[in-house]
Amino acid sequence: MSWASASAHRAAYVRRDSAPSRATSPGHPAASSDRAISSSSGADTDTRTHVREAMARLFAGKPSRTDGWLTKDNLAKEAGVSPATMFRAKAVLGDWDVHTAVHGTVPPGEARRDTAIHDLNRQLLQAKREITDLHQQLAAAATVIAALHHDNQLLRAEHTTAGTVTTLPPRPR
Question: Which of 1, 68, 129, 146 could form a disulfide with 63 if both were Cys (CB 3.0 to 4.6 A apart)?
Fold first, then answer.
């Protein structure tokens, strides 16, 4: 095979996803592609099916090929198609965009974890407030106890210097 014919063969093979080439015979590599592009719908049915299945796995939090984050790159990896092929499935990506706009791009497991962390932080903040209140009450009680102790000491000192204590006879029964 000459250099010119090899180059033409490569060019026809590379153009298989773009405009139809001159080589359209059924056995020619440019004529068949497992991810053929339809000009009317953007992507073929297999591609749309693969992308929708991948979307369902990612939305359910059960990815098989990615870390589960809801990104278009992960969607393409999860579907087993190239990002360029995935971007041709515009209707599917429209559904993706609507879902991520409503629910965010955090995987469901991460969202549950984030919710649990938020709840625990809220409980921790409430417990800290209660502890602060109890410390303030403890400080106030300590101040009152110290004042009462001081008053008690003064009364005892006054009592011992005031005179003698006489015991009374027991009362008859």
Answer: 68
pLDDT in tens, 126-171: 999 999 999 999 999 999 999 999 999 998 888 776 666 678 888 8
Instruction: Report the distance separating Cα 70 and Cα 95, nearest Å.
Output: 13
Q: Measured between alpha carbons, how far is 170 from 123 in angstroms, rounded to an integer?
A: 61
The one-letter amino acid at 114: D
pTM of the model: 0.45
Burial of 47 (0-12, 13-18, 19+ CB in 10 A): buried
**Contacts of residue 71, Cβ cutoff 8 Å, sequence gap at least 6:** 105
**How far, rounded to the nearest angstrom, does the alpha carbon of residue 139 sit from its chain's CA centroid?**
42
44 with 35: CB under 8 angstroms? Answer: yes
What is the C-alpha separation between 119 and 11, in angstroms, rounded? 59
**Token pair in block for residue 49:** 């099916």
